[in-house]
Amino acid sequence: MNKKNKSKLAAIFDDPVRSDILWTDIENLLYALGADITEGRGSRVRVALKDVRAVFHRPHPRKVTDRGSVKSMRRFLIAAGVKDAEI
């Protein structure tokens, strides 16, 4: 995992929850962690990481992820065994 991915992982686990993380940065982080990402219908994105599966919605028309989605991504990463301690 490169330095940018590590900083995005730290941003996802920041308190208070941030609302300035680009979705493309989150996708790049997921790829770096070894996740399988497939396209769903519309803006849906299916993510599988370490036998944990979730469906997320790409933000549109903006490219920035909102706080609720960041919280969901945080819960997903914790369920998959990824913690901010892996930074």
Write structural notes for this entry.
The protein starts with a helix and ends in an 8-residue tail after the last helix. The mean pLDDT is 92. The radius of gyration is 12 Å and the shape is globular. β3 (44-49) and β4 (52-57) form a beta hairpin. The strands form 2 sheets. It has a 3-stranded antiparallel beta sheet, with helices on one face. The chain has one domain (3-86): Double Stranded RNA Binding Domain (2-Layer Sandwich), CATH 3.30.160. It contains 3 helices and 5 strands, in the order αβαββββα. The chain is an alpha+beta fold and 87 residues long.
Adjacency order of strands in the biggest sheet? 2-3-4
Helix content: 25-40%
Total count of helical runs of at least 4 residues: 3
Residue ranges: pLDDT <50 for 5 or more in a row? none
Short description:
This protein has 87 residues and is an alpha+beta fold.
Topology record:
Elements: H1 3-12, E1 21-22, H2 23-33, E2 36-39, E3 44-49, E4 52-57, E5 64-65, H3 67-79
Antiparallel strand pairs: 1-5, 2-3, 3-4
Helix pairs in contact: 1-2
Task: Jot down its keywords.
87 residues; alpha+beta; Double Stranded RNA Binding Domain; three-stranded antiparallel β-sheet; two-stranded antiparallel ribbon; 39% helix
